[in-house]
Amino acid sequence: MGISVSWDSEAEQPPARQAAWRSMNAVCAGDKAGWLALFAADGVVEDPVGPSMFDAEGKGHHGHEGIAAFWDATIANVERFEFEIRDSHAAGDEVANVGTITTYLPGGYRVDTDGVFVYRVGEDGLIRSMRAFWETERAMATARQVPE
Fold it and tell me: pLDDT tens-digit profile of 86-104?
């Protein structure tokens, strides 16, 4: 997995933005342990928010065990990630990133997921929640096979 996240690392950034950047880089690197370490013990991942093929009840994935299971069911199955963050809005202990996540799947398939990705951190800088707002149908409509 290649790292495709770019950010002005020289500039001082709010803690939530830093946590989001670290999260995206860990995903790109395929670093499950490093990614889990970014979350508070009671952290929650909702990706996407609401009921989905990844979360039938739409209640999110809770704690390190639930978040690790989410990784295994989703992130682990992707060959490569690219994050294109076009805009980022930090306020208080949260950041809302607007962009596209491109996933490269086995068999030469590629899917582009446009969305808003909201991270909330605690005073310790650990992620308390990550909420991804994207539409399954829109993302699946971009699925295509690309030459390897």
Answer: 999 999 999 999 999 999 9
Specify whether the CB–CB gap between 111 and 28 falls below 8 A: no
Nearest partner of 60 among 137, 121, 130, 113, judged by Cα? 130
pLDDT at 7: 56
Contact between 105 and 82 (Cβ < 8 Å): no
The full DSSP string for 32-94 is HHHHHHTEEEEEEEESSSSSBTTBTTS--EEHHHHHHHHHHHTGGG-SEEEEEEEEEEEETTE
Task: Give kind and range of the element (H or E) at residue 97.
Answer: strand 94-105
pTM, rounded to two decimals: 0.91
- What b-and-e string marks burial along 96-105, b requiring 16 or more CB atoms within 10 Å of the CB? bbebbbbbbe
